[in-house]
Structures are given as structure tokens and as C-alpha cells.
Amino acid sequence: MNAPKDTTRLTPTIPHSPLDKVHRGLLQSLYPMNISVKTEYALHAIFDLAVQPQGEPVKIAEIARRQKIPQKFLELILSSLKQGGFVESRRGAEGGYRLARPADQITVGQVLRYVEQSKKTRRGPNAFTDLWKRVDAAIGALVDTTTFAELARRWKETQTRFVPNWDI
Description:
Elements: H1 26-30, H2 37-51, H3 60-67, H4 71-83, E1 87-90, E2 96-99, H5 108-116, H6 129-143, H7 148-161
Antiparallel strand pairs: 1-2
């Protein structure tokens, strides 16, 4: 006899970020400055706000759930991002966080550098110094020209491109 099906979870889990399980750590593996979990979560949080309707505040608990970020850690990250001018908050029952500027005016590089600004632990000059400078410049050129609006647009395209049509 078959066990009863678990019907408590009828909605499919769709990743809400281009930096989901498959992509997590990609920046870390490519970017020699060793991106911290805090930075990765900050990027996820900004991305989450970028895909929401513009101007509408989003509750921390919703972002934490969608992006799988511990809520207390997210509170600290959003507070820091608020000080950096990336997000703003609204208090009250209808409150939450929203982007302080349009998503097309915030680049991945800006957020990355803001959160990682205290981490500059390069060794003295060696045989790889020039190589790492060129790698930093190449990656910087990419992240400095990639806005969260572009990330959101590309992500939405990939999510709608393969929607099955069940019309018969």
C-alpha cells in the first residue's frame, strides 16, 4: 500500500535569485578577493528588492525566506546597506525595505565594494601581483557595468523561457 502523499506543500519552490544553489559561490570561485557570506547575502537581498514592484516595501522575513538568509543576519546586512544608501526602510505594519535608487542605478560592483571595503588583505608584491590586478580589472569591468535591473531582467527571462504549455 502506498504512503499518503504530503499535500502540505503544493506550491513549487522556484529560486528567486540568479545566485541560487547552482550559482552560489561562482563569484567566490572567480573573484580573488574572496567574497564573504555577508557580501553574497547582501547581493541576494538587493536582487530580491530589485525584482519586487518598484517602491513597495518588502518585509525582512519575506526576503529571508525567499533568499534563504538567516533573518537576524539579514537585519544587520540591510542596516549596513541602508547606511550605504542602497536601501531605505519604512516602519509600521505596511513597512519594510525597498531600494533607495532605481535598480538600474545600482551595480553589483558598488554593493560588492561597499560590503567588502574592510577586507583588503593582499600580500606584498610577488610573481602573481600583476595577474591578480588584471583579473580584478576584468571582473571589475563586468560587475561595475552589471546593474540589478539587468540581473532581474535576465533572471525573469530564464524563468519564463521554459514554461510548459499544457493547452490541449
